[in-house]
Amino acid sequence: MNATLSVRMNATEGSLLRLIGLVGRRGFSIRRVEATHTHNGRWLEADLAVTGERSIDTLQRHVSNLHDVETVTVLTRDRSAVDRRIDRESFSAGRVSMTSPVEGSRLLRRY
Amino acid sequence: MSMNGALALVRALEAQGVVTVFGYPGGAIMPVYDALLESSIRHVLTRHEQGAALAAIGFARTASKPGVCLATSGPGATNLVTGLADAMMDSVPLIAITGQVPGGALGTDAFQEVDTFGITMPVVKHSYLVRCADDIPAVVAEAFEIAGSGRPGPVLIDLPKDVAAAAMQRANPHGDLASPPHRRTQAGAGFNENELDHAVALLEQSRRPVVYVGGGVVNADAVDAFRQFVETSRIPTVQTLKGLGSLPCEHELSLGMLGMHGLPAANMAVQESDLLVVVGARFDDRVTGKLDEFAPHARVIHLDVDPAEMGKIRQPDAPVLGDLNQTLERLAVPMPIDDWRGHCLAMKRDKAWDYDPPVAHVYAPTLLRDLSLAADENVLVTCDVGQHQMWVAQHYQFKHPRQHLTSGGLGTMGFGLPAAIGAQLADPDATVICVTGDGSIMMNIQELATLRRYDLPVRILLLDNQSLGMVRQWQHLFFADRYSEIDLSDNPDFTRVAEAFGMSAFRVDSPDDLPNAIDRLLHGRGSMLAHVAINTEANVWPLVPPATSNSKMLQGSHI
Q1: pLDDT in tens, B498-520
Q2: pLDDT tens sequence across B460-489
Q3: Terminus of chain A with fewer CB atoms < 10 Å: N or C?
Q4: Where are the domains of chain B?
Q5: Per residue in A61-108, pLDDT tens?
Q6: Domain range B5-165, CATH class
Q7: Is residue A101 part of a domain?
Q8: Integer Cα distance of B447 and B47 in angstroms
Q9: What topology is assigned to B193-350 in CATH?
């Protein structure tokens, strides 16, 4: 399962570490991270391209449980066009980037 | 004394109603220890920081409110990590406050500097590195809110020494953060009516339901609602290690613990069921055995407060998220399952334990069963980890889950004695018995000094098989009798050790000694240690081998 997550979280001490550590511990490899402080440093907004064998919905709920996290959106999942483009660019340029994320359903807060 | 960060911390703890903290002083936490002299908070000095953390867990689980532990930076903080992990795995509200080197020294490899915030990140629900003294009151308030809300867990507050020593600048020491903290909406507050309706429909369709209850019922303070649910539906019930006592173990509908060392009727009922009603449990691998073959015919209703547990291990047919007190009430419907109920109760009778085996030595299951029959609900039992822990789970007839403090998720050897200390301080009128083994007791035996220091009448029931019994059992069963580092025949004389710490102590070598030993444990005065010699070859039965279906329980002989 490949997926891209978009996370908005409170920009507190170690928030990015907390996020990527959780994703790794819950069984996903992170292939790309793009993170930016917004709103004068109040928010940390991060996009993560991840791959793993487990349920992306479960990962989404784990991330959602982090105290600092405001929203988690699964932008893409499985072998979407975006994922394949990431793979190609990563392979050819030694890096990854994502230019036009597919708008996904905003699933967070279902629970 | 002018208000500095350390005193603000202490005042913030007082504002949370904290009356007892557990800890061990050191360099970077010294301002806090100085401020404690200005407070009515009782500080309990353990003899190792791990003891402080585990005692705070025992306190929290007994008092049903967050426990607090303190340690200094560096080794003090790293010694807390096991306790934090234990609290995380067992969903215990714990506040750990650690001293840290001054802010300017962070990242310079200063004396007793370690990245506590980073080291503990995987084993906390949330954590803080406090950069400004004025933030302390709000950080403490938020930490308690996080630790105790939703699914409880540990929260770390790392406090650099210069921040603790800094004067508070803001007039109101109980005020808000200089930068207001993020207040997220509490997730999972309500439940979905459609999912609840679906769950009711599944119940109505079921002919062979089983309730599988875990520690979430205790955390949700929903034991009464749970019992009402079972009494109304009259569904046979199996319990996890942490769910034991949710239904009194002697209750007609209680089939006992399920899983690797579960009782036969419990495992067989689950394997034959067509519906599992999972209440505050998480499909732990020690419960499910081989996952693909766990309850293979059952649909699943999963009730929990944590959305991340829904489908984490097994996809529920009806996920019901929310407060168990509300959801259980809605599911409490009478079930026309007389035949199935009768079948389960017949299995329970047919597989009843033989407590009178033809052996000449002390038989641990009989000792623990007899102890529980003589004890009342005011007796709290803490456990360490290993064979004795499983015998307690199988044979002690708990009347209520708060009687049982055991390290379920992490399996922390050394848990029992400090947890007993915390439990006794939380409930001074309780009779607290620490059931331990000759391996586990040595993990935190320094806390015998804490018993003496605070004159705590904890009773230690030490089951001594002169080995690491559970490891020996596995080496016997799964490693072709290739015994490796399990021999503890060079143990110290535990009665003399206890006496050296001011406890009374006695030996139990024969089954004839048991009635008197049980009477002393339950009714004797002061702290004591009962040193019970059991057979060195004794094993825990039944046992489901790892990665094997729960229908394939191994059963051995009574030795």
Answers
A1: 999 999 999 999 999 999 999 99
A2: 999 999 999 999 999 999 999 999 999 999
A3: N
A4: 5-165, 193-350, 364-533
A5: 999 999 999 999 999 998 654 545 544 544 444 333 333 333 332 322
A6: alpha beta
A7: no
A8: 6
A9: Rossmann fold (3.40.50)
Would residue A16 count as lying in a domain?
yes
- With a pLDDT cut of 70, the percent of chain B lying above it is 96
* B242 counts as catalytic: no
Query: Does domain B364-533 correspond to CATH entry 1.10.238.10?
Result: no
Check B3, B14, B30, B112 and give the catalytic one. Answer: B112
3-state helix, strand, coil in chain B (%, to 5): 40, 15, 40
> What is the distance in angstroms between the Cα of A87 and the nearest Cα belonging to chain B?
28
DSSP A102: P
Tell me the pLDDT tens digit for each residue of B225-253.
Answer: 999 999 999 999 999 999 999 999 999 99
CA distance A62 to chain B (A): 5
Cα-trace Rg, chain B = 24
ipTM of model: 0.92
Annotation marks residue B415 as catalytic: no
Q: Which helix (H) or strand (E) holds B455?
A: none
Say how many C-beta atoms besides its own lie within 10 A of residue B207's C-beta. Answer: 12
Across the interface, whether the CB atoms of A65 and B187 are under 8 A apart is answered yes
Alpha-carbon distance of B129 to B161, in angstroms, equals 11
Which residue on chain A is closest to B312 by alpha carbon?
A: A58
State the residue range of the domain holding A89: 2-93
The one-letter amino acid code at B91 reads: S
Active site residue B144: no
Number of domains in chain A: 1
pTM (two decimals): 0.93
Q: Out of A14, A68, A110, whose CB is closest to B182? A: A68
To the query of whether residue B399 is one of the catalytic residues in this protein, the response is no
- Written in H, E and C, the secondary structure of A3-60 is EEEEEEEECCCCHHHHHHHHHHHCCEEEEEEEEEEECCCCEEEEEEEEEECCCHHHHH
What integer pLDDT is reported at residue B357 of this predicted model?
87
CATH number, domain of A62, equals 3.30.70.260
